[in-house]
Each structure stands twice: as C-alpha cells, then as structure tokens.
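tool_call: predict_structure(chain=1)
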Amino acid sequence: MHYVIHCLDHAGAVQKRLDNYEAHKAYLASARMKAVISGPLLADDEETMIGSCFIVEAASLAEVEAFNRADPFFMADLWATISIRPFNKRVDNRT
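tool_result:
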C-alpha cells in the first residue's frame, strides 16, 4: 500500500529545518521504508521550504507512523501539522 505523508513546518522554522537537514537526509537514505517520491514543500515564492511531502510504500499505517516518528525533523519538532493517509496510486505516466 502507498501512503502520503504531508507535513507543514512551524512558522518561521527555516533555520530549524536547515539545522536538521543533513540528519534528515541521512535518515531517509538509510531507512528500510521504500520512498516512491519525497521532497520539501515550498512557499508561494517557490524557494522557501515550508514542509515535507512523501509517498512511501509500506505494509501498514502503523509502519509509516513509526517511520515518521523516527525522522530527525519529527524529533526536532519541526512540523506543526502531520497528515498520513493511504493512497491508491492509479496512474503513473512517466516514461
């Protein structure tokens, strides 16, 4: 099953994000969770990072929640809101 993890940072948290960015990237690189796609959400200026979005493949919602709780961004209290939802991927038209 695929899951979407959508997280929005606390207001004014760009420096906190940058301070924990290398640990976050290392965590994702070593995680057993299969990431289909991930990256930062951007403000309307299309440059300032304001959150995170992931589509992951996992056996259960509980597995995804545990993966998210172990993320250095979570542990640094970067995210003000976190939404994790099952996702039914129907179309992938990449060539």
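agent: The two ends are 22 Å apart (CA to CA). Proceeding to next step.
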